[in-house]
Give the backbone structure.
Amino acid sequence: MSPRKFLVTGGTGFLGAALVKHLVAQGHHVRVLDDNSRGRDRRLTDIAGRFEMVGGDIRDADAVRDAMRGMDCCCHLAYVNGTEFFYSKPELVLDVAVRGMLNVLDACRAENVRDLVLASSSEVYQTPPMVPTPETVPCSVPDPLNPRYSYGGGKLACELMAINWGRTGFDRVVIFRPHNVYGPDMGWEHVAPQLALRLKQMADAQPEGVITFPIQGDGSETRAFVHIDDFTRALGLVIDKGEHLGIYHLGNDEEVSIADFARQAAQALGREIILAPGPLMPGGTPRRCPDISKIKALGFVPQIPLAQGLPPVVQWYAENAHLKG
């Protein structure tokens, strides 16, 4: 692809920063819009001076339009992620989702940016009717009274707006749905860092012997985790080759139980654990694994199995617990 000008909203977030580095490495001009309410500048320190940083809130229409000016493509990743926020700050989650999406769409049209790439989520399925799950299965919000669904519902609203605004005035609108991306410095509100931090704390408190480790559920619940490097390769293919109004799963089809995930995390710290089952948070799903046939058809092949990718992530969190706060 010849050099282009990209706006990445949420570009100091975990996924956004990985995308920014990828685009810069390909020789593109990249402008980042982020207020760092969730993102961190440190994620981009190794490419300082090679991209343009604009501070601003995605809910500020003027800031979004100013950032959009002169761009060829907008990659919209600004959002409030982290399971604990779905329950504790559902109004904020939806505010950022809906106002942000409207501002991006309006700015694209006003500034004649005709290529839009939107980050959605596997949460749009909640409990999918089939696993592995293709992009064509129904999306749902099972219980609007459950604040957890502020996240998945907001993502669904963004998809609907992007697709239907995108029918006119755009050359291409493409959507990707990440499935449990993990990696170093991914934040503190997700399963991998939370497990790693609790394991480190318990291991420090109990230097020897088998650790009894509480978990949500009984451990039979499954997910399919994709390493950030694999995810970024897949997203690059979507940006280069994704079709207009296309929707793509970005993930790994290596399904693993939460019990096995926890044991592998403990092994990365040289410890053995016995799991102590506990109640699940309301709205969780027992099984999730994507069908990644569509992204594979664009040339994607996952290269980093969990057994290879997880230990360095657990060790990063064990060594950098001081950054939390």
About this structure: The mean pLDDT is 95. Residues 5-181+224-250 form a domain with the Rossmann fold fold (CATH 3.40.50.720). The radius of gyration is 19 Å.
